[in-house]
Design goal:
This protein is an alpha+beta fold. It has a domain of about 35 residues: 3-Layer(aba) Sandwich (YefM-like fold). The chain is built from three helices and three strands; from the N terminus they run βααββα. The protein has a three-stranded mixed sheet. The longest helix has 9 residues. The protein starts with a strand and ends with a helix.
């Protein structure tokens, strides 16, 4: 695959144009003083943004101890309170 090499200043000046090219499947090589530093390429699969909400983790917890919600004691409590052990 042949990549088009562009310098940073050119990328800044024509950013929208280069984004369109990437959306059309082209890969770009970003250079600083003609030395490659980064690559911009299309992502293989666009994932729909799904903000975390109630119920998103449903079914992922396999086991939870019956003592999970019990108050902390001793060393465990000291660790959370940043107290000496």
């Amino acid at each position: 695959m042949v990549m088009k090499a562009i310098n940073i200043q050119d990328a800044k000046t024509h950013f929208s144009q280069y984004v369109r090219q990437v959306k059309n499947g082209e890969c770009l090589l970003i250079c600083e003083r003609n030395v490659p530093v980064a690559e911009i390429r299309p992502i293989s699969k666009v994932r729909k943004f799904n903000p975390a909400g109630m119920g998103n983790a449903r079914g992922t917890v396999i086991f939870m101890s019956k003592h999970f919600n019990d108050p902390l004691k001793g060393k465990e409590l000291a660790l959370f309170e940043d107290a000496p052990l």
